[in-house]
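Run log, item B.
One chain of 248 residues. Sequence copied directly from the ordering sheet:
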Amino acid sequence: MSRTLTFSIFRHNPRDPASTPRVESYQLTEAAGMTLFIALNMIRENQAPDLNFDFVCRAGVCGSCAMLINGRPGLACRTLTQTLPDHITLYPLPGFALIADLSVNTGIWMREMAERLQTWVHGQDEPDVNALEARMEPELAEEIYELDRCIECGCCVAACGTAQMRPEFVAAVGLNKIARFRLDPRDLRKDADYYELIGNDQGIFGCMSLLGCEDLCPKGLPLQTQLAFMRRKMAMQGIRKWIPLVPA
């Protein structure tokens, strides 16, 4: 038999002086194959036309619909209501500027992180758009692609204890970006260059290894492995910086 679902949803519009943070409840009859995205659309169409939440692709690719689902970061479009209890609480992701209700501005945070970490290929020459793409071994291309699957949804930031205590921490999404460019042979930077970007408490040494990022990454990225690897490499680089005779 179909269940009656109760949704307790955070409501607040910081641009409206009359708005105050609150939780409002709505009820829906569950349908087969219903996702949180479908449920939220039904609530907005029939009960709360001013409900704010984000979506673009509805396929777990854009990351726009990330939110706290019963206290855990996740994507609304990829979360089936049948996997949740009858009472579902929805809150916006912490750590990002609130737009309204369940909608947060991850774009500002991601852009600032990208600019700080210079997340683009650093080469010596100006790119030649007419030249053939440089060859790369398929195995290496697969390794880079694996890390490039990050959709910047913000779930790892919301799940990170350090990011919640230190707003300047670049979190797993930023460290994963560095790991990706470190693999890319077209990027001419060395570990000494990466150390200047993430060899501090705002980078890899600020990670407390709670691994909420890996547990809750909707794309299943190998963040635990990458964080451990980058910590070793940056620790060795830090030692070599102060003791130059230590071998690479």
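Observations after the first pass:
- The radius of gyration is 21 Å.
- The longest strand covers residues 4-11.
Flagged for discussion on Thursday.
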